[in-house]
Amino acid sequence: MNKDLNLLIVDDHPMIVDGYCTIFNNLVEGYNFNIYCAYNSEEAFKIIEQNSKLKNKIDIALLDVSLPAYKEEKIFCGGDLAKVFKEKYPTSKVIMITMHHEGIIIDKIISKVNPEGFINKSDVGFETFSEVFKVILGGEKFISKTIYNSINELNNKKFGFDNIDYEIISLIEKGIKTKDLPNYIPITLSAIEKRKVKIKFQVLNQSGNDNELIERVRKLNLI
Fold first, then answer.
1. Residue 84 exposed, middle or buried by CB count within 10 Å (0-12, 13-18, 19+)
2. Which pTM value belongs to this model?
3. Any signal peptide, and if so, which residues (predicted)?
4. How are beta strands 60-64 and 93-98 bridged, if at all?
């Protein structure tokens, strides 16, 4: 039996919206979609507000990053709209779609919203989009290749980690104790401990335990 889902699609190009509708109605099996379409931030905001007041949950929002602004509500991009959506529907899923590959733009949206999916339009065609959507509906997150590479490039510039720093992080993530790290990395324990202090300060902006470090670097896609 198919599951009913309410879906919001927002893009300022009507042909793209029509294409997504075709995918969901014809290629994604196992679901009956009730689709709301909007072509700018104002239309989308009003759909979200109206359904929220009626206590009608929107299960998924597919949002373009670049959208015409709705200045009255201080919505200047898809990231701002996604934040409004998550405030109304905290358990619903957000998928961001973009042609941008600038790490600083992507990082800002991830920090603000932490979407379940972030896809560069050049990475995923209509034929593969349905499979990506199923992955996200299954409870996993999906970041497309261009988005992933942009995040990594930005983080490398931001933190200035070298190969040894990344090796330390990777080994900690695998559960290797600090005292045993010299068995895997050709530097002294003292040097490793100094690097760990630097890594934690840069990633956490403070000291912290290894679990906090790993949780944060996972969110930053550093490992």
1. buried
2. 0.73
3. none
4. parallel
81 near 98, Cβ under 8 Å? no
Q: Are 87 and 112 in contact (CB under 8 A)?
A: no
Q: Where are the domains of the chain?
A: 3-153, 160-219
When the pLDDT of each residue in the chain is averaged and rounded to a whole number, the result is 90
Q: Which two tokens stand for residue 44?
A: 């989308």
Do the beta carbons of residue 94 and residue 137 sit within 8 Å?
no
Distance CA 46, CA 52 (A): 10
Class of 160-219 per CATH?
mainly alpha
**105 contacts 76 by C-beta, under 8 angstroms:** no
pLDDT digits (tens, 9 = 90+) for 149-199: 888 787 777 777 888 988 999 899 999 999 999 999 999 999 999 999 988
Closest CA to 107 of 11, 203, 219: 219
CATH code assigned to 3-153: 3.40.50.2300
From the list 86, 63, 62, 78, the residue with the least C-alpha distance to 5 is 62
Which residues 6+ apart lie within 8 Å of 196 measured at CB? 168, 172, 178
CB atoms within 10 A of CB 155: 18
| Residues 66, 56: Cα–Cα separation, whole Å | 26
